[in-house]
Amino acid sequence: MAFTHLHVHSNFSFLDGGSSVQALADRAKAVGCKSLAITDHNGLYGAVRFYEYALKAGIKPIVGVELDVEPGEEMPRYPNCHPARLTKEKRNHHIVLIAKNLNGYSNLCKIVTLAQLSHEKGEAAAGAEAIKQHSEDIFCLSGCVKGEIPSLVAAGKIDEAKRAALKWIEIFGRDRFLIEMQNNMLPGSALLNAQLAELASELGLRIVATNNVHYAEKNDFKVHDVLVCVQTLTTLDDTHPLRKQNSEYYLKSPKAMANLFRKYPQALKNAEWVADQCDLNLGLGTFRFPDYPLPKGETAYSYLCKLCFDALERLYRPITPNVLERLNHELKVIDDLGFAEYFLVVRDIVQYAKSNGIRCSGRGSAADSLVAYCLGITIADPIEHNLLFERFLNPERKGMPDIDIDFDAARRDEVIEYIYNRYGAKLVRDSSIETTNEDKVAMVCTVSCLKARSAIRDLGKAMGFPPDDISRLASALPHIGGKRIREAIEKYPELRNSNLPISRMETLIDICEKVDDFPRHLSVHLCGVVISKDPLTDLVPLEWAAKGVIVTQFDKDDIETLGLVKMDILGLRNLSAIEDALPMIEKNYGVSLDIDSIPLDDEPTYETLRSCNTVGCFQVESPGMRGLLGRLQPRVFEDVIAQISLFRPGPMQADMINPFIARRHGEEEVTYRHPALEPVLKETYGVILYQEQVIAVSHALAGFSYGQSDSLRRAMTTDRSQEEMEKIKKSFIEGAQNKGVDSQVAEEVFSKLRAFAAYGFCKAHAASFAKIAFQTAYLKTHYPAEFFAGILNNEPMGFYPANVIVEEARRLGIELYGMDINESEARDVPFAVVDNNQTISGIRIGLKHVKNISEAEIASITQARAQRPFSSFADFCLRTKCNRSTIENLINCGAFDSFEVPTGKLMWLLGEIANAARKPKAADQNSSLLFDRLAVDDLDARLMQLPDAPQLTLHERVRMDYEILGLSTICHPMEFYRKKLTKARVRRAVDVREVADNSVVKVAGVVVVCMRPPTRSGTVVVFITLEDETGLADCVIFPKVYEKCGPVIFNNPALIIEGKAQKMGNGFSIIASSVRPLSAHYRTDNKTEIKPFTERRRIAGQRSFVRSAGV
Amino acid sequence: MQQDIQVILNSRHAPIAFEWQGRMQRVREVQECWRLIGAWWDGDGERTFFRVLTEHGGIYELYFDHVDSAWRLSAIRD
Description:
The complex is a heterodimer. By secondary structure, chain A is an alpha/beta fold. Helix content of chain A is about 45%, strand content about 15%. Chain A contains 46 helices and 23 strands. In chain A, helix 24 (about 575-590) packs parallel to helix 35 and helix 24 (about 575-590) packs across helix 36. The longest helix of chain A has 20 residues, at about 765-780. By secondary structure, chain B is mainly beta. Chain B has one domain (about 5-75). Chain B is about 0% helix and about 65% strand. Chain B has a seven-stranded antiparallel beta sheet, with no helix packed on it. In chain B, a hairpin with a 5-residue loop joins strand 2 and strand 3.
């Protein structure tokens, strides 16, 4: 017999579903169901992917929701308890709503949105009135045992149950309100079903059978059980009402359901009847672009043309036929695909940012477009860099255009605010429900999924493992999926030998594998904003995110599937750093620098790049990038673009770096397999490096149009059957033969393209990034103090923490000034002073670095100081509103050192003041937080009376700096180890560079980078960067050494590494033969024994700095 | 009360008779059937319970333990 499951939870019921929508659809198909509903808790989260997958699987998709419903005043579930004191589970009732068609689906979106937005996050519940307002084309089932009617019946309140049923009948009518019956083989199910059937009969309602499915297969019960423990913050040994008592909540076959409902065959037929009535068509495949307010008399296309041609005149002088032809071509494609409005919207947003001084830059394949360049969306000239439009927009493939834009991270919210104001209704938490339903803009959600680390952490806790052991294991795991935990434990020595019980551990890993990629919770996407023409809730349910922002219940992929426009408004802190540095440069040097117009042939900047001293520079600061810079030795901007494209997993795994560099330096002959390839591959010396080149090669050799070529490239990047690939190959070779190319040559080129297509890099993206990389390198070269201050003020960013940036600044001769209560501003401030005709640059560390200091406390300090400087510690205490721990931190990081009072005395006095402050205050006093009723003179006098306390050693001071500020302006911690390390023949990083190739050296330092990137062979190679007071030392640890030293590497903050020095161009690394921890045995705490170091370093031809560092 | 018993089943795997204290008890009616799972993480499995009315008028709760495939009598209700 036919049967459709109408009450089914997928893993989008967030920790209350043990199977994915795909697994459920597959199971439904396997047991012979023709249709299937998904009804997750209070959301349609999985609806779009379920709809798409089910259609492909040949299952009719039915979309619904199991909704929390606010208890009516007349029928609370726990009448003797105030609702506010009840948990959500106890307070609300459940009902199941199912969309009959698109209108019903739209209404579901609205009901869910109302339920979500009218309550705090995680507390969604719909009122009967909201449901009534949007009840059209929706079926309503009375729900599980938590439903209003079943729970009243189970409690013996039959009359109340009837009254409740009448309320729902009034909303949905007798045709669309059904009494739901479940038989999950629990004690009491039989009696409850009999009573429900009787009630339905009395009221003339249909009964309908469901199984309240929570997982696809019976065996998935364990997965569900552990997930519920995670959700309820319990362990398996605890009891909780949300845990199921048996494993009967799986997707049963129609036959099994018939067996369970032998007494109620009509309930089974009615399930099928409901399914037959449902016919949802989401209308996928159409674009829903937002409206752009056009000037009078213009169409989107005409206005776009006008803007582009205006810009063309400005950007290209003289305009060449080539440029003109290219623009006309792009405009035609954009018009044919109907994307003119989209471009105008993007341009409008960029325009807003620029006119308000918000730095921005388009990234990704959009830079392939001359239109995007003319509109000011992208910064790289597509003509100059030979970028191919079809990589961005393929006229033969109507895909949603994707323009991602980086904005100054510090001001990104202003851009989002603008989008809300311009294209949608502004929403705030207390906005009315009506406004909410009309909104056309929302942030896109991201579905945070369980991966290896999070799964071990969450599930391990639920399974009762000791938290410390679980945390240690989770932290040591690489960022991989749950399915690869076993593989990782086998592969990485530091993961072995955990003390966890083996059999239980096996169960944990089994379950982690099963929940791999399961949705864990919803959060705000880093940058996605959806802009719609019509109210969003016609198609998308909305809810609150944790930050008090409204987000869609669909992620970016689902949003695109629905044809809605999603824009990535990315926040790039490097842009903020640039933006911060510019006014400081103007202030210190009187130079108004137009960073977008700096010369791209600035030789000192290339010197910096070639020297590999690129810490802090966008995209080129990682150890691998620095090593590659040393080998590639960039001399022109195209080299920088190539540099950014080469250091990617694909080119590395395909071993493209070596031939490229050899040809770049003329060490290997540049050859082309066919003369037609020369114009296309000349810029990369015959090596295919960019995705755009795959398109150009197909065009040049096989005569494909650019559109066809892009389709070929895309086909090669996705998994294809052998048969499909043969078809593609055949057409390529035929095309080449038609152009007179030898079939063997064509075949060879095709194989290369195929091997390359999967990992090639988009040149347009690389060109956009290369420009920002060059800008940061330029600033570092010419204005290092301002550059580093900009970086530090926008941390965390890039590859390194603040302490590494500070050390780099120190090594480059920038004076670092520590925390001073009368000098430090909120942020780090660079300055330049002229001394003996030499410009000395420095940075004063800002108050924001102090651990746990609040913005209010910083404001309190700067405001009090603006009136007059602090005259003493007591004066500070009485005129600011800082709490005790903040003042302690300020004392310990030396903020009061200028008063020349020992730290111990200040701490003592602070204790006394705090004790005095504990005494009751007069009600009308409104002065300092801690220090009412005290006078500065009294406190200063008391300070003089205090006995001398022992001073901190210098080592303790530096350690305090690291604890409180995360960095130290005094010296690098390795300076305390240097004396004994030198005796032990351990070299400084700067000296290691001077040794001969292949010499055996020892180096010691703080681990600032430790990673295990994928390698071509699949073996594990660890890359470590050690930092000492003189610089960075990059080390490589191959499997044999790693196997022995894995736990040492990952469990120690500082290491001594011995190995062979290896030089490649300017690049340098140590191939480790042994690794051991840097023990305290090497440390010297006494400051007099620390030898200061002096270093002269020339920064790429600009200025010289002399520094007598340290102590 | 946890006593091993012998049970005769019908084609739907429901008891139609069982032997207890040396006497065969014929089942007149299965009043209810339910299933519960124990501490699966400690090796416990599922149990299917049957509340049956015998021809002698006694009400018994029997269960089938899926881990060791054994039938047991868990309660007698009059």
